[in-house]
What we know:
By secondary structure, this protein is α+β, with helices and mostly antiparallel strands. About 55% of the residues lie in helices and about 10% in strands.
Amino acid sequence: xxxxxGNIEQxxxxxxxxxxxxxxxxxxxxxxxxxCCILKGQGNATMYPDPLLRMPGDIDVWIDADKERIxxxxxxxxxxxxxxxxxxxxxxxxxxxxxxxxxxxxxxxxKYNRRLQRWIxxxxxxxxTNRVRLTGTDSDIAIPTADFNAVYQLGHILIHLADEGxxxxxxxxxxxxxxxxxxxxxxxxxxxxxxxxxLGMMRVAAAVMWVERExxxxxxxxxxxxxxxxxxxxxxxxxxxxxxxxxxxxxxxxVGPGRIKKRMATLRRLIKLSRIAPGEFFYHGFRRAGNxxxxxxxxxxxx
Length: 303
């Protein structure tokens, strides 16, 4: 009991620090001429019964600017910043990691990624102006709306499933996203379903709905589609086997001569989960293998 109490106080202290750093980051970016929106993280915490009790992580910030301008801005301050296809590191704080995004989400599937980027562009202004105040702070910041989160965070779950894995925290976050969406409008819920269908995400939605209902007890009126037990169990088994971002999975144990075995285990996992989103997993496999040139939002990226 005393250990639990200690853990809770540590979580509260970390969340309070992250809230403060989030506000400092947004104020700095706005002073430097950028509109920005905080993704997941502390924005998700605002939907929890006690925002300070959500386990905090890093800060993901979406900046309203093109990739070249963002890269030049970050590297003018930190020339050695590391970049991946999703974000660029922005080590502005010593005690909190910051990832800067030019777009909140990218798919490997070319057709669905083009549709996704058009949808994001159409929703952008609403996200950059949806301002809230985090617990213990004195300035407002922008976070995504419930209907945007319902699409974006399901897509985030999908790309991490195709990559290293997800954790139960993703499911708990999405539980509160679905509750917030229902409270806003049933029509918004219908619009989200239409968008998910256009982006090829109804299978993963059905799988996630099963986990939300069976594991977390989400009532039926909050579900976006009928739950799919078969696909849902695949996701649940992967969560239980690998933990948050799959970091505890056996396939990540990099032990000398076991490297080929590790790669085969990763391939078997991708094949098993691919039925949830066949197209995305197919293109993701090519990206990992380094055999595909992908075009995202006008930029050509070769891996």
